[in-house]
Amino acid sequence: MNGLLRFTPVRAWMVLVGLTLLSWALTERSGAARLATTAVVVIAAIKVRLVVAHFMELDPGHLPWRRVFDAWVVAVAAIILGGYWLT
Amino acid sequence: MVATPIAVSGKSAAVQSSARPIPGDAGVWVFITADICAFALFFLLFTIGRVQQPALYDHSRQALDPNLGLLNTLILLTSSWFMVRAVQAAREGDRRRIGLNLMLAMVVGAGFAVVKVFEYGEKFAAGITMLTNEFFTYYFVFTGIHFLHFLIGMGALAVCLAKSSKSELDARYVTWIEATGTYWHMVDLLWIVLFPMLYLLRAA
């Protein structure tokens, strides 16, 4: 993650667009629906973290806020994936 | 001799990074935290509904056009990137680059509204409303509330743009544009979760 934290905004944007297109390819083309959908939600959680770190500029130094946002993304991914795997 | 300034510069940047104050002010972060927690509750409600009626949710989901959701994700990510550039320009006191990047953030961002209005229109034309079923109630309420956030963000961007040409580019302006940027990225962040949850949860 340290390497990622040194991303310039344009590199962060490129990675975010790349991850968006990757998750798109997974949903549209993959036959393994459950695995692909799980990957899509995990990718969304990674994208949230990238936005928080590189667009919102919440550095590791801003520890209490960073923890709040990290807890939020973990909770949201767990809710969505937990519900998905229950069905 | 060459390595020294690089090492010093690298250390200095690292120290500055960890010591940098939070962008905007604490107030906007409190507001955003409360807002994303409200959305987390929305995601929980949706998930509970989906667990209870998986077939209905999957069937309804298939009436959505994921291409439009994808397009709106790319639009918001790109608009967010221009916003980051506008904030950087404000810190450097570059009035021309602030205006240019805010303008680009707004022009690209406006595409989100165009797509959303088209998408809502398509649904209404197909006879789908928020009363159709529980999935569409959540779909219209959540995307509607998110759209309201988007409109408020566009308004704040317009204020930043107006101020950039008239106001002094002092610390107060930087705080203002940083807070607006933080809010604008939150709009992006919420869509990053809403899009897969509403459009892409394929039943196995």
Give a short summary of the structure.
Chain A has 87 residues and is mainly α.
CATH architecture of chain B: Up-down Bundle
Tally the beta strands of chain A.
0
State Rg of chain B: 20 Å
- Report the principal-axis shape of chain A: flat
| Regions with little confidence, pLDDT below 50 for 5+ residues of chain B | 1-18
Compute the number of structural domains of chain B: 1
Pattern of helices and strands of chain B: HHHHHHH
> Pairing-aware structural class of the strands and helices of chain B?
mainly alpha
Mean model confidence by pLDDT of chain A: 89
* Integer tally of domains of chain A: 1
What is the CA-CA span between the terminal residues of chain A? 33 Å
| Major sheet characteristics of chain B | none
**CATH C-level of chain B:** Mainly Alpha
Largest interface: pair, residues per side: A-B, 44 and 46 residues
Order of helices and strands of chain A: HHHH
Radius of gyration of chain A: 14 Å
Describe the protein.
The complex is a heterodimer of chains A (87) and B (204). Chain A has 87 residues and is mainly alpha-helical. Chain A has one domain (2-86). Helices cover 83% and strands 0% of the residues of chain A. Chain A has four helices and no strands. Chain A has helices at residues 2-5, 9-29, 33-55, 63-86. The radius of gyration of chain A is 14 Å and the shape is flat. The termini of chain A are far apart. Chain B is mostly helical and 204 residues long. Chain B is built from seven helices and no strands. In chain B, helix 2 packs across helix 3 and helix 2 (26-52) runs antiparallel to helix 6 (134-166). The longest helix of chain B has 33 residues, at 134-166. Chain B is elongated. Chain A binds chain B through residues 9-10, 12-13, 16-17, 20, 23-24, 27-28, 33-34, 36-37, 40-41, 44, 47-48, 51-52, 54-62, 65, 68-69, 72, 75-76, 79-80, 82-84, 86-87, and chain B through 17-20, 22-23, 29, 33, 36-37, 40, 43-44, 47-48, 50-51, 54, 66, 70, 73-74, 77-78, 80-81, 83-85, 88, 181-182, 185-186, 188-189, 192-193, 195-197, 200-204.
